[in-house]
Amino acid sequence: VEDRLIDHLPVATLVHGGDTLHLANDAFFELTGYASLRELEADGGLDALFVHDDDDAGGVLTLKRADEELI
Questions:
Q1: What is the 3-state secondary structure (H, E, C) of 26-60?
Q2: pTM to 2 decimals?
Q3: φ and ψ at residue 69, rounded to 5 degrees
Q4: pLDDT (tens digit per residue) in 7-18
């Protein structure tokens, strides 16, 4: 197994280019409840991760886990 720098970061990290998901670490999968990037992509990719509140003038995004829990 290749040792990747991203796996040693102490925060949930997702690397993407536009809508293309490239890498994520275990902390990201634990936080979001997804098992893999393929699972996240099948669920809608980046759009599946965030709830956009159009009424919020502050531009706050809410993270949505795979189990639909909002955090």
A1: HHHHHHHCCCCHHHHHHCCCHHHHEEECCCCCCCC
A2: 0.84
A3: -65, 135
A4: 899 999 999 999
